[in-house]
């Protein structure tokens, strides 16, 4: 069996090495093997590692299908005045033409 530590997000024992980081196949969490625990673990980061805060503007970096609808949030869509929340989808926002949505920070970059 491997001697890799369990996932810090979901405690899954099935993590694997991917380059310089470890990846959990169950929840998708990525972490570094020799990284020190982050004291400010409540920070939300975008796809490039920039810290996000309430009121920031972000840009969508991937086409996102809107669940329960045939519409799509296109790459490059700018979202203003985000609000950070706890949970799997950690950004609450309003997108012009679509309305209120929840986004994952892994699909946006800070504008």
Automatic annotation (TrEMBL):
Top-level taxon: Bacteria
Domain Protein YjdM C-terminal positions: 44-111
Every Protein YjdM N-terminal domain range: 4-32
One matching Pfam family: Zn_Ribbon_YjdM
Family: Belongs to the YjdM family.
Name the UniProt record assigns to this protein: Alkylphosphonate utilization protein
Source organism of the structure: Halomonas litopenaei
């Amino acid at each position: 069996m491997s001697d890799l530590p369990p996932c810090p997000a979901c405690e899954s024992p099935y993590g694997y090495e991917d380059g310089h980081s470890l990846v959990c196949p169950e929840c998708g969490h990525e972490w570094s093997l020799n990284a020190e625990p982050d004291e400010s673990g409540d920070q939300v980061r975008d796809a490039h590692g920039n810290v996000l805060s309430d009121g920031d503007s972000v840009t969508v970096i991937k086409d996102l299908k809107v669940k329960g609808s045939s519409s799509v949030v296109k790459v490059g869509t700018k979202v203003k005045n985000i609000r950070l929340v706890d949970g799997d989808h950690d950004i609450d926002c309003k997108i012009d033409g679509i309305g209120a949505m929840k986004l994952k920070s892994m699909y946006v970059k800070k504008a």
